[in-house]
């Protein structure tokens, strides 16, 4: 029986160019297309919508999210 080990950065690599949901500390959330990332899980999102407590507060063409604020990323 083979054990498959999947690393978080491998999952992010597969999500490049796809829509993701990024939940941050402080009840903040971004939804957009994952354009890039680094080993610290700093993220670059394109066409991102910002939500605070579930309410849309704006859109931006490109945003960089600092990895230490990320609670989770849903591809």
From TrEMBL:
Annotated keywords: Ribonucleoprotein
A GO MF label: RNA binding
Database matches in Pfam families: LSM
Spans through the membrane: none
Top-rank taxon: Archaea
Cross-referenced SMART domains: Sm
Entry keyword Ribonucleoprotein: yes
Gene Ontology, cellular component aspect: ribonucleoprotein complex
GO-annotated biological processes: mRNA splicing, via spliceosome
UniProt domain Sm: residue ranges: 7-75
InterPro entries: Lsm6/sSmF, LSM_dom_sf, Sm, Sm_dom_euk/arc, snRNP_Sm-like_arc
Family affiliation: Belongs to the snRNP Sm proteins family.
Protein name per Swiss-Prot or TrEMBL: Putative snRNP Sm-like protein
Upper taxonomic lineage: Archaea, Methanobacteriati, Thermoplasmatota, Thermoplasmata, Methanomassiliicoccales
